[in-house]
Amino acid sequence: MNSSCDEDCSFVLLNEEEGKFHFVNRSRAETRFTPYSSFKIANTLIAIETGQWNDVSQTFSVNTSAYPIESWWPKRWYQAPLTLREAFHASALPIYRQLAVDIGEVAMERVLSGFQYGNSDISSGLDDFWLNGSLQISAVEQVCFLRRLARRELPLKAKSFAAVETIMEVDLDQEPNWFADEFTGQAGNVRLFAKTGAGPISKGRFIGWYVGYVQNAEGNHYFALNVEADSFKALQGARKAKVLQQLKAFKVLK
Length: 254
What we know:
There is one protein chain. By secondary structure, the protein is an alpha+beta fold. Helices cover 35% and strands 20% of the residues. It contains 9 helices and 7 strands. The strands form 2 sheets. Strands 2-1-7-6-5 form a 5-stranded antiparallel sheet, with helices on both faces. Strands 3-4 form a two-stranded antiparallel ribbon. The longest helix is centred in the last third of the chain and has 18 residues, at 232-249. The radius of gyration is 17 Å and the shape is globular.
């Protein structure tokens, strides 16, 4: 698994304590790309804020009339109803597309505009603007958004912040050992809040994201990685491997 970050990869780190950005390939890190499922962080916040989600036991099912089951879908997306946390970590695309429709264009645009989330452009379609559509965001802007989220500086209700933190936290017991061990083996209590994202940006070319923050005794360490590859498969494990490499290089992980 290639963990290097070359010219088709960028990484940004912002440590809360020192307030300083660190970059790998800064020019690319300041370039906007489609967010794909990394947008589920913002989409989840907006769903909570606008009342589409009410409590942890609430479940969501795929609207197969609007989104017929496709052969490439993981069965987990549609075999049984999912809580919002489950849908978030399973990256259940049809559930989130329906959520966007239920939120509605007016509310989506209103809340998203307060996030300073990239160009905040939803014009290409309410249920797919983040899927290589009009919405674009840079790795630097991802990190700034995450910092405002964790510091509760976004124009949202207190319950929205608390709920998305619970939803967004990564269950390391469900992660591959090679990844989880790097966090559980650290001294003290280390928590990870993160989301992947990936999809095609042109014929035979895919982009992958891994964004979030590591919380430890020193505070929050916000990060965003994006990388291009020739296939989705090439991105799957590589995103997290590259983030681990950079978190170690910048001494977030010892």
